[in-house]
Amino acid sequence: MTSAAIQEDAGTTYFVNEHSIVRTIWGKADTVLFIFAGSAAEFALNKAVDWLYFTGKLPADPLGRLFSTVSYARAIVFAKNNDALKAIDKITGIHSAVENARGAQIPDWAYRDVLFMLIDYSIRSFEILERKLTQQEKEEVFAVFYRIGDRMGLKGLPPTFNVWLTMRVQHLDQNLVNGHYTKDLFKQYRKHLGALRYFILIEVQKMIVPERVKTLLRFGNLQIIYPVLAMYKFSRHLKMDWFLKSILLPGQYKQQVKELDYTK
Known about the structure:
Blueprint: H1 3-12, H2 21-26, H3 29-45, H4 50-54, H5 57-60, H6 62-77, H7 81-102, H8 108-129, H9 135-151, H10 161-174, H11 180-193, H12 195-208, H13 211-217, H14 225-237, H15 241-248, H16 254-258
């Protein structure tokens, strides 16, 4: 194959194989919303969350900021290879600009934490809403986000899924703290969601986050989420799930969430 043909093939193939379980996970608004919920909890605890406060965007619009992070990841999953690489490079450029403005560097472990969250909550969300993943499928999820981190030039990435499992536990133990940013961010969640939606968010978070996160956030027992989840799963068969989503989501995010369902 000529170099021109190789370049053309790289531009027309997808970053993630069209039959990959990763596309199945990230192609449904349901699973993406659960990924969002888990990430929202863990973001608030991360010791590097002050970087997200530096620009002022996170406290001003915490839901939009988190949606942006999740949406970027989702766009990469469904992009052609060259487009995905450009999107990853754009993310790297945005972070570099923030670092230059602050005159400091975002720690490598903080970058890894975000990747680790996306891997973990991709798996957890799908298993709660659909079925258990096989070992091979879990390794596929890991491989996709490893490639994203590798493209970003991140140091210290785990080489395999099993090594990631160990590092994930270490990161949870070392890099999370319930501090004043945590309390402020949850206040912002409540402010932007309203009391009922905030209650549902917390219930979903109790279901999906690791034990370390539950402990730090002092989460109590689950209350109503399992019956609600069962009703929601049933509503999908009746094509009524969007009625429930319209109740549970703030109006300004409904269209964004609708677009998360991959229909191509």
